[in-house]
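Tokens as discussed.
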């Protein structure tokens, strides 16, 4: 119904998402094209040209420009020479016109504890249309009486209901969203290539904002936080394990988890995933999927689970070598068998909890949880499987020169009884 209503543009989203988008870029759209200049008519023309050009781009939807409303106004342009003839100034004439139309407060009425302003103005019949305004009588400083039409030019015209400004500059906004299956990053680059020549040809400025700007800023922040988390994890592993080489071996689970997480995003969120995968495998061009902030949060959560599985293995290897006198080979074989069930149970428990969210990812309300769960689920599948292969092999390579048996667990002497 809204699409068939002329003069109305619609945008469907969520309250929190719209509020954050308005704070960051002033629009809830995925891409906002802000054109800055001084002349309103030129801004409107540029906005319409941009709208026509952007609408033709594949993947662009909900393109809207010039959302400002125009209202019919009656401007009054005073003629200075005629004003001087009757002893009027623009200020005095404007004050009399305002008092006649909007009224002038002449007294204050008290009704108990309430107070009301008493205003005087023309009756509605005497200010109903343009002809009535033209016949308004003004009084000059010398007592001269003149009608408004004799000293001013009046004529109806359409004017902007509101003029958008930013940084002391007028601006026009063209907003658009990304169609389902399209790539936001690629669409932004295509929009830049189309819009920049249109705007720069008029000598105006353009700035690109919207949700992609917030996503890029959040992505950079997440990259810094991920680096800090990785450093802290390395230090904690060194404290817990006591060996830098073994700690780095445990961190090897991170790329193993990345394989499944990236593959899950690639197959689920990229347009025409299987054809895209074949194009990537054959070395041809492909469209990269969008990596959302929720996906980045999922990777950080996934890293913790993957590292925990690695710690379960290497700690048990060290326990068997130190306290039960096993060789490196015996510790790896026995430790892998004894830790297989705990690792599978922890991984399956997390995976089974995430499966319903992934299956219902297209339902309203799952916009954040679905990408996060998808990354964790895909990363768990690869990290759990490869962890049981790569970590034992890496542990054998690191400790093959240390084939010495550790001392058995010391047994404390029995307590002597008091005589």
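Sequence:
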């Amino acid at each position: 119904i809204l699409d068939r209503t002329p003069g109305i543009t619609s945008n469907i989203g969520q309250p929190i998402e719209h509020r954050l988008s308005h704070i960051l870029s002033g629009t809830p759209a995925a891409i906002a094209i802000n054109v800055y200049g001084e002349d309103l008519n030129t801004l409107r023309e540029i906005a319409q040209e941009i709208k026509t050009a952007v609408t033709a781009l594949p993947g662009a939807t909900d393109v809207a420009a010039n959302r400002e409303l125009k209202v019919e106004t009656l401007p009054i342009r005073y003629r200075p020479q005629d004003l001087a003839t009757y002893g009027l100034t623009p200020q005095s004439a404007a004050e009399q016109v305002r008092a006649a139309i909007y009224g002038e407060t002449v007294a204050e009425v008290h009704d108990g504890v309430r107070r009301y302003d008493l205003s005087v103005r023309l009756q509605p019949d005497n200010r109903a249309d343009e002809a009535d305004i033209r016949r308004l009588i003004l009084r000059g400083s010398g007592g001269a009486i003149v009608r408004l039409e004799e000293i001013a030019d009046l004529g109806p015209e359409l004017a902007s209901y509101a003029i958008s400004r930013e940084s002391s500059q007028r601006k026009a906004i063209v907003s658009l969203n990304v169609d389902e299956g399209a790539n936001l990053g690629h669409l932004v680059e295509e929009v830049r290539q189309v819009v920049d020549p249109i705007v720069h040809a008029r000598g105006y400025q353009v700035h690109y904002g919207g949700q992609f700007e917030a996503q890029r800023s959040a992505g950079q922040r997440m990259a810094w936080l991920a680096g800090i988390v990785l450093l802290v994890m390395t230090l904690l592993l060194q404290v817990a394990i006591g060996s830098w080489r073994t700690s780095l071996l445990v961190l090897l689970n991170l790329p193993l988890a990345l394989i499944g997480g990236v593959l899950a995003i690639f197959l689920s969120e990229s347009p025409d995933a299987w054809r895209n995968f074949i194009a990537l495998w054959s070395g041809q061009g492909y469209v990269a999927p969008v990596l959302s902030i929720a996906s980045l949060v999922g990777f950080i959560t996934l890293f913790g689970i993957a590292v925990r599985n690695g710690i379960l293995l290497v700690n048990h290897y060290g326990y068997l070598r130190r306290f039960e006198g096993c060789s490196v080979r015996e510790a790896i074989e026995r430790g892998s068998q004894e830790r297989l069930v705990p690792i599978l149970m922890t991984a399956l428990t997390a995976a089974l909890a995430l499966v319903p969210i992934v299956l219902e990812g297209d339902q309203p309300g799952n916009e954040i949880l679905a990408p996060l769960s998808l990354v964790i689920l895909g990363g768990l599948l690869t990290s759990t499987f490869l962890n049981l292969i790569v970590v034992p092999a890496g542990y054998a390579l690191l400790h093959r020169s240390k084939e010495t048996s550790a001392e058995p667990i010391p047994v404390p002497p029995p307590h002597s009884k008091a005589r």
